């Protein structure tokens, strides 16, 4: 168990850094809303960085699988069924998000056709929107496992519930009510509940009972 915890504590910061690079920094550099010509121009200006963004998101999704597998092993003694639900939701999300990167690569091949290129990039972000639903769902069984296990403070489990609600609302607003920017912004703030869990896990670590230490 100690080895599992140590591995997660190493992988989580790496996952956060590379995930922010792929999902926050890269779009801020290249994407111009409703302006395919400027977006294509930005990509041409630094195509290698854009490609690194694709690679970074692929690595991010790989870690989205690896970290939950490790968490499954950590929490399985607490409740095997909850741990399985937690894992399955992530295993569903990863291929959906990876599908979007196929369209990122296709967009690179048609920079001379900005409108079609932008359609492929839109599909990539639509894929991430669908994946976001499952990124929210997995936090509910994880939150319950945290509460039941006492590995971490109980309030961390409730933070995970809040984070899950934030992710799901974020996705549903994008799908059903895309014009409700204020609700979207509030929902995104709620997702900090997952960040609190990660920071606590990395800095403090879970408190394992003696029989679970090996």
UniProtKB/TrEMBL annotation:
The chain crosses the membrane at residues 12-32, 52-75, 87-111, 123-143, 155-177, 183-203. InterPro entries: DUF4386. Keywords: Membrane, Transmembrane, Transmembrane helix. This is DUF4386 domain-containing protein. It comes from Aquimarina amphilecti. The lineage of its organism: Bacteria, Pseudomonadati, Bacteroidota, Flavobacteriia, Flavobacteriales.
